[in-house]
Amino acid sequence: MEQSAEIRVCHLADAAATAALGRELASLLLNGGGPGGGAAPPTLLLQGELGAGKTCLVQGLALALGIDEPITSPTFALAQHYSGRGADGEPHALVHLDLYRLEQPAAAAELFAQEEEEAGALGAVLAVEWPERLPWLPDGAWRLELQHDGDRRRAVLRPPHSAA
Question: Which of 47, 86, 130, 163 keeps 20 to 30 A from 157, CA to CA?
Answer without folding.
Answer: 86
